């Protein structure tokens, strides 16, 4: 049995493969996958594995396979302004992509059982804000991470969207379902299925099986730590200063895209020679702590990305602009008649 898509040469190529295989379907999900480079959430010594359709684990760090994250993002049906809870938030990769869709008026919380992983996720978030070439193309709802067991959350705070990154024990199914608002969506592995669960009333839900999977189970609290409750971050209103920053940046961004429409264009997926069936294949999964590994069986003559002459062939490929939106954003902000301290604030202190 094999995995879902071929290995990418870089993040853009990996996303092309996910789009071609119909794991990524909506333009907005594709856009945020391209904006957040998966390799930036790997350890520097292991970046070469980032664009394979495999899960990754190192110590407590874990990331699911790209095809799984694609299904999760599509199943969450995200919209700007929603509240989101990520249970087993790991490196923060998924939470960052979600935050790019939620925008400045959303809520983006993550619960992770390992403190060192939370520290790592916060570092990766700061690196994304400082170094990402796509950061200025969005208004990020910054993830807030807390340490703790997600099965010990203080009850009462409900969310519009919830994702659980480990298999839910059957006895905790109702606990999970009651974390979402009416009309909210929960995506989680249950009974070897990745499920999309929509809450339709106080005691009613609609369940859809998305994909067969096999995740390691959530850590069930033992008798010695049942009193270790977890308090999620509060929901809070956006401060006026931050709201003004978002409004100014949005106006500048809109004008930049009017002047440079090529910045919104991305290359279409490569047109590949149909040497093998590109429909979804069965997925072979090895459970791991708070995640999984997906093993793909590569065809011995896997040359589907090559044309008849052995060369890559593309269809209507759009040239990559030499200048990014970050360049134009900094230029426009520097032209504003405001103090330098406010200019730095507007660009998030990026150099």
From TrEMBL:
<dbReference type="GO" id="GO:0004719">
    <property type="term" value="F:protein-L-isoaspartate (D-aspartate) O-methyltransferase activity"/>
</dbReference>
<comment type="similarity">
    <text>Belongs to the methyltransferase superfamily. L-isoaspartyl/D-aspartyl protein methyltransferase family.</text>
</comment>
<feature type="compositionally biased region" description="Basic residues">
    <location>
        <begin position="266"/>
        <end position="277"/>
    </location>
</feature>
<dbReference type="InterPro" id="IPR000682">
    <property type="entry name" value="PCMT"/>
</dbReference>
<dbReference type="GO" id="GO:0005737">
    <property type="term" value="C:cytoplasm"/>
</dbReference>
<protein>
    <submittedName>
        <fullName>Uncharacterized protein</fullName>
    </submittedName>
</protein>
<dbReference type="Pfam" id="PF01135">
    <property type="entry name" value="PCMT"/>
</dbReference>
<feature type="region of interest" description="Disordered">
    <location>
        <begin position="258"/>
        <end position="277"/>
    </location>
</feature>
<dbReference type="InterPro" id="IPR029063">
    <property type="entry name" value="SAM-dependent_MTases_sf"/>
</dbReference>
């Amino acid at each position: 049995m094999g995995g879902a898509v071929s290995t990418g040469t870089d993040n853009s190529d990996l996303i092309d493969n996910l789009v071609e295989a119909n794991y990524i379907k909506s333009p907005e999900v594709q856009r945020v996958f391209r904006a957040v480079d998966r390799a930036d959430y790997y350890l520097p010594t292991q970046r070469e594995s980032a664009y394979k359709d495999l899960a990754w684990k190192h110590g407590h760090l874990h990331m699911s396979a790209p095809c799984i994250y694609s299904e999760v993002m599509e199943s969450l049906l995200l919209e700007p302004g929603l509240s989101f809870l990520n249970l087993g938030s790991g490196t923060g990769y998924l939470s960052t992509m979600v935050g790019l869709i939620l925008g400045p008026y959303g809520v983006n919380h993550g619960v992770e059982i390992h403190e060192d992983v939370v520290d790592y996720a916060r570092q990766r978030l700061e690196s994304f804000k400082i170094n990402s070439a796509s950061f200025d193309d969005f208004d990020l709802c910054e993830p807030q991470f807390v340490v703790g067991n997600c099965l010990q959350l203080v009850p009462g705070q409900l969310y519009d969207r919830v994702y659980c990154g480990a298999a839910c024990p059957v006895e905790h199914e109702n606990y999970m379902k009651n974390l979402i608002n009416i009309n909210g969506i929960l995506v989680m592995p249950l009974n070897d299925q990745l499920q999309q669960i929509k809450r339709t009333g106080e005691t009613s839900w609609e369940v859809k099986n998305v994909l067969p999977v096999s995740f390691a189970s959530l850590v069930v609290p033992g008798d010695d730590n049942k009193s270790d409750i977890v308090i999620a971050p509060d929901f809070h209103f956006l401060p006026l200063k931050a709201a003004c920053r978002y409004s100014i940046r949005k106006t500048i961004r809109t004008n930049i895209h009017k002047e440079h429409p090529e910045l919104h264009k991305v290359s279409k997926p490569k047109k590949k020679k149909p040497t093998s069936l590109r429909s979804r294949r069965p997925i072979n999964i090895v459970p791991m702590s708070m995640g999984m590994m997906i093993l793909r069986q590569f065809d011995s003559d896997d040359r589907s990305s090559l044309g008849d002459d052995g060369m890559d062939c593309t269809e209507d490929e759009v040239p990559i602009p030499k200048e990014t939106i970050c360049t134009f954003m900094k230029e426009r902000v520097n032209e504003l008649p405001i103090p330098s301290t406010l200019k730095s604030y507007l660009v998030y202190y990026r150099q």
